Amino acid sequence: MSKKRGFDIDFPEQTQDGSHTGARTSDARRGPMAAAISENADALRARAEAERVIREENDRIAHEHVRLKRAGLITDMVPLDAIRTEKLSRDRSLAPDPEIGELKDSIREIGLSNPIRVEPVGEHYELVQGFRRLTAYRELFAETGDEKFARIPAGLVATGETLTGLYRKMVDENLVRRGISFAEMAQLAVTFARDPETEVSDVEGAVATLYASAGRQKRSYIRHFATLLEAIGDVLQHSEAIPRKLGLDLVREIGNDEAFTAQLRDALSRDFERDAEAELAILQRALPGAAPVERSSASPSSSGRSQKAAAKTTLRCTVPAGTVRCAARDGKVELQMERDFSTVDRRRLEAAVAAFMSALDD
């Protein structure tokens, strides 16, 4: 006969007065199974608490990542061959940039201080801001083969931004920089108005939408240049070189004389191989009252002057107030730095210019 196993039963202890305590006096009498169950329950509670803390931290990090991404503050090293420039029409001329060399030199020396901005789209990225910076990197990689130029720092724009919003980001960045011409801004407005995926269908609306951050007068100039491009843009080769006054004079004459547009197109069509200076001469001669210029002056001699005008010396100079960029051409010296020179007293400006010219003549 098998022997029955006994087990302990905890009875409440009785006090001297006959009452019961209702509790055990020691955990020593608790069996090993109960102790294991209690310890496992404590471990499960601790694990559940740790998981809760981790989930809360992960949620916080995810929300912060989304916030930074929407603000365009998430930056990555993006491969050049993964970046496309097809979604947005650029507001920069496709002609060779004479100042791209300066940008490449700066990137070689100190790197890219201002990342481009791209929108992730599937397996590639669409460029939003930074066409010149991307061009500089591509040229540097082609010239050197250095892998450090195979990827470019890029801020990631949150996917889902409207097309108009992406255009505004591109335009507003360029508005704060010098060098973009009225013709380039007008061409973008014309292209934007023709794009079936945008919300506007006319140049007036395109200018109002794209250049909402610009002043009223500037928007007016852009609309006038858009009129010029719609009239003769297809026969212009160097529209970005047209200065503001000449463009406005041409638009005024287009409005005053119905035959002027045809005459202008004919004059431009007769000379297929022309540089910017020759094209400007043709446009200037077409205006009523302009001094007559022989056609031959736009060929060999004009080409010589154009080459001289295109020659440029650029340099950087560090002064106590900061860094000054200087560009010197035939008949023109341009100084740029982070300073509002319009606040300088006129007499001080005159004295500074006089000292500058005197130093050049010494």
UniProtKB/TrEMBL annotation:
Pfam families: ParB_N. Signal peptide: none annotated. Residues 13-24 have a biased composition (Polar residues). Residues 1-32, 291-312 are annotated as: Disordered. GO terms for biological process: chromosome segregation. One of its GO terms (cellular component) is chromosome. Residues 76-174 form the ParB-like N-terminal domain. Transmembrane segments: none annotated. SUPFAM superfamilies: ParB/Sulfiredoxin. It comes from the Bacteria. Residues 291-310 have a biased composition (Low complexity). This is Chromosome partitioning protein, ParB family.
